[in-house]
Amino acid sequence: MSSTDRGSCTTRFIKEECDYMWEIENFQVLWKLTDAVMMSPMFTVSGSNQLQFQFKFLKIYDKQHPHGVLKLYLSCVNSNSVICNYRISVIRNGQISKATSNFYTFHNRREDLEIFSYLSKKMNRLITCNNNTVNIRCKLTVFVADTSNLLNCKSVNNDKVPNLKFDWVFLDENLSDVKLRTACGKEIPAHRLVLATASPVFRAMFSHSMPGNRTSSVDMMDVSYETAVEMLRHIYTGSVKKCKISTIIELLAAADTYQFEELKNKCEKILITNLSTDNVLEILEIANNHGAKILKKGIADFRKLRHAIDDLMLEDMILSDPVNGLVVDIEQKSTFFSQVLRYLCTSLHQINVGDHTRLKVSRTT
Q1: Where is the BTB domain (predicted)?
Q2: Handedness of CA 239, 244, 246, 247 (dihedral sign)
Q3: pTM of the prediction?
Q4: I need a surface site. Which of 210, 253, 266, 337 has the fewest CB within 10 A?
């Protein structure tokens, strides 16, 4: 026996984000009363005190700018080697008047990154006209130095036998070594190995046959021809053909008798989708006779829903089925209840539980 280890690995930087707005009211007045620096409160990324940032406006006077220039800086206050992606914009009169974005690495604490610069005489381009405020918005994504490693490995058995398909010999005399004799006397060709693989009952039956004295037929006098064909269809192809409810009931009984658990489960689910006020008691008896746990759970849900709907005032309402656009007239109450309960029970037992269906009840005028 041999095996091969196969896997994949993903390494990613953990990222944290924030969206911060710095609003400065009465900006011109504060600017005149303030020294060379105006600083924002410190803000954090994802609530982590280990990553604190701060804005500051700086007044600079030199030979090139004798009237002064305003510069906006961003600094990382308390961490080294921080990689970030920023988008910083000036919001003026409800619109973005200036914006910039880029990647940057803060190598040292309190390191300043210049964002914008304005000449003092053009400071009005920053200010919102009606309330004399300056609004700086910062969207910041920080890539933390720590990394996340994801490893997905599995061992593949190279000697695993592939699933075999037997649909090509379904109801075929070719290679057949046994016949199933049904209630009406008609016989169906089958294959011992296939039946024994699918059913513990058939396996025990064929295993205890004496060599050289193997019977060429098996009596299934309690199973109709149609039901036996559908039972074999599932054994050979894995599918269940759409049948009458009476046939599904017989198929459930045969699956229970010969211990075809997968087929039995499928029959129970089909019966749940076909529950009605007219047949629920009959099907409950069938579920009890054959130990059908899935079916009994479905019937319990059905009865709870039935009692809930009985409490509604339904005389002047219609049911709109959002999936099929089906509209049921309330005057036909028996049909109406059956449709509602069948619909709800079907949705409760959908295989894909991520799909959600809404039941809409609207009042007519």
Answers
A1: 176-244
A2: negative
A3: 0.43
A4: 210
